[in-house]
């Protein structure tokens, strides 16, 4: 039987993102989410996590969106104190600043009175050759699984799922796209599908190039025929608590 995690990224980005993720959990197939602890609505996300304790909640590590949590990471920020955008950021960033900031983000998650289920990262930066050793070190320090973004679980001792699928993303999403992904992941013992459901709000529209598509994702993820397909396949919907 396949153990399948369906993770909603960007918890904490905005109120609309938070509420969309909870809707996709309560009335859809999302089982897990990852919080951007540096974003303005992280505290709101933490309150929703506490109100929905069966939802798996991990840390969505950030180096290229919003402001840092740590106030002394000069190689990561621009003249306004914001994270630099992804174009070249990971090459200019110093490893010590990356580790300091990621540690601060994880510690902020714990400060909410929550224990994370796992780690992943915004725009998959933990798959970068410069960043991965830092995240691996922190995952081992905090005894947390990590998203298998490169699908090379055999290369590390970390507790990863066997297969990670990031194809549920883009302008052309339909229920059929997700059904094809489900056909693929059901051939593995454990897998994760990345999603980004949301209700659209001003913060999302003005801050993200991937905004309207999230409403379509929410519709698909709460489509009852998708859940029935999962049940028919004998796939078990789980969180990272159930992997290992």
From TrEMBL:
Is Oxidoreductase among this UniProt entry's keywords?
Answer: no
Molecular function, one GO term:
metal ion binding
Annotated EC: 3.5.1.-
Q: Which UniProt keywords apply?
A: Carbohydrate metabolism, Hydrolase, Magnesium, Metal-binding
Q: Name one GO biological process term.
A: polysaccharide catabolic process
Q: What is this protein's function?
A: Probably catalyzes the deacetylation of acetylated carbohydrates an important step in the degradation of oligosaccharides.
Extract the HAMAP family matched here: COD
Report the sequence similarity comment from the record: Belongs to the YdjC deacetylase family.
Q: What is this protein called?
A: Carbohydrate deacetylase
Q: Report the source organism.
A: Lentibacillus populi
């Amino acid at each position: 039987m396949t153990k399948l995690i369906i993770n909603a990224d960007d918890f904490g980005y905005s109120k609309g993102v938070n509420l969309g993720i909870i809707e996709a959990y309560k009335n859809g197939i999302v089982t897990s989410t990852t919080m951007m602890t540096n974003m303005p609505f992280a505290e709101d996300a933490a309150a929703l996590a506490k109100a929905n304790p069966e939802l798996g909640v991990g840390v969505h590590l950030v180096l290229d969106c919003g402001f840092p949590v740590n106030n002394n990471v000069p190689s990561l920020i621009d003249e306004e104190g914001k994270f630099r955008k992804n174009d070249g950021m990971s090459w200019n960033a110093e490893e010590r600043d990356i580790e300091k900031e990621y540690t601060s983000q994880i510690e902020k998650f714990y400060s909410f009175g929550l224990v994370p289920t796992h780690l992943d990262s915004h725009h998959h930066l933990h798959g970068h050759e410069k960043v991965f050793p830092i995240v691996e070190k922190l995952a081992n320090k905090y005894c947390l699984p990590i998203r298998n973004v490169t699908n090379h679980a055999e290369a590390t001792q970390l507790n990863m799922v066997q297969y990670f699928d990031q194809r549920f993303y883009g302008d052309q999403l339909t229920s059929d796209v997700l059904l094809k992904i489900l056909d693929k992941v059901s051939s593995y013992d454990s897998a994760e599908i990345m999603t980004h459901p949301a209700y659209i709000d001003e913060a999302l529209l003005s801050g993200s190039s991937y905004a309207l598509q999230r409403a379509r994702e929410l519709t698909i993820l709460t489509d009852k025929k998708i859940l029935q397909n999962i049940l028919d396949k004998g796939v078990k919907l789980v969180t990272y608590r159930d992997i290992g």
